[in-house]
Amino acid sequence: MDDELDLVTAAEDAEKVRGEHFTVWWPEVDRLANAGRWGDYEALLCEMRDATERGSELAGWTLAPRPTLSLADLYEQRGDTERAIAELERFLNAIVRYRQVEPEGGDTGQQRATERLQRLREG
User: Fold this and answer.
1) For residue range 41-60, what is the model confidence (pLDDT) as tens digits?
2) What is the 3-state secondary structure (H, E, C) of the chain?
3) Which residue segment(s) compose the domain that 94 sits in?
4) What is the number of domains present in the chain?
5) CB atoms within 10 A of CB 83
6) What is the mean pLDDT of residues 35-40?
């Protein structure tokens, strides 16, 4: 049991962004978007995306979809469909590599990313 607890603690630590768990940064993401500070917005979302990937790699749980979906939104709004597609593909590939247990009720983030990717590829 201690090994499992240590793994969870390590994964939660890996999910930190700027010293805090990535989930505490959503108000700042919203503030940056409202201020039109798109470079800072993108940078913070990338850090959050990376954090959820690190946690998943260690613990085998699924990735939080919101950082990736928000990045895909940003790129799509900029007209950069290729980058939006690359972001969604990265997310889906990370799920295949890291997730060991599918969430109860299915992985709705995976489903949304897959549907979005299909729509973007169809143009």
Assistant:
1) 999 999 999 999 999 999 99
2) CHHHHHHHHHHHHHCEECCEEHHHHHHHHHHHHHCCCHHHHHHHHHHHHHHHHHHHHHHCCCCCCHHHHHHHHHHHHCCCHHHHHHHHHHHHHHHHHHCCCCCCCCCHHHHHHHHHHHHHHHC
3) 2-122
4) 1
5) 15
6) 98
